[in-house]
Structures are given as C-alpha cells and as structure tokens.
Known about the structure:
Radius of gyration: 20 Å
Number of helices: 2
Largest sheet: 2 strands, antiparallel
Strand order of the largest sheet: 1-4
Amino acid sequence: MWRAIVETALLFLTPFVAYALFHSLQLRWPFVRELWHGKIVSLLTIAGLLVAIVGVVALGLTGLNQGAYVPAHVENGKLKPGRFE
C-alpha cells in the first residue's frame, strides 16, 4: 500500500523538482518567493496531477503489479522466494 502512495507522490512532485532544477541550472537560487507565485504553482500542480494520473494508468496497463503476491516461505525444508502469481 505504501508503495502505491509513494510512487504517486513522487510522480506528482516531478514537475516541482524539474522547475527548481531549471532555475538551479540557470545559476539562480530556486527557493525565492518571486519564482513561486500563484500562477506557476497552479500550473505545476496541474502538471503534477496529469503526470501522476498518466503514470498510474501506465503502471496499470503494463501489468507490472498484476496477480497476487505470494510471500517467501519454507516448503519441504527449502526456502522459496516471494513472487507474483
């Protein structure tokens, strides 16, 4: 459960990090109040939501997390690794 929340949060924060990195590469301090006015924050929020939605849909369509997880267990005295079925 935590993995899904963390992945979505990281996808949402991607535009904010890219914006700060852009200003850092231009040799400006990215954490100045004038660079983070209402319009920019609104656009970054919308972009973050779009990136998060597209990322979650892409992960759902690729099927990387499909199936039930069977945890590692001991079978006939041997350790069997965890896997998705």
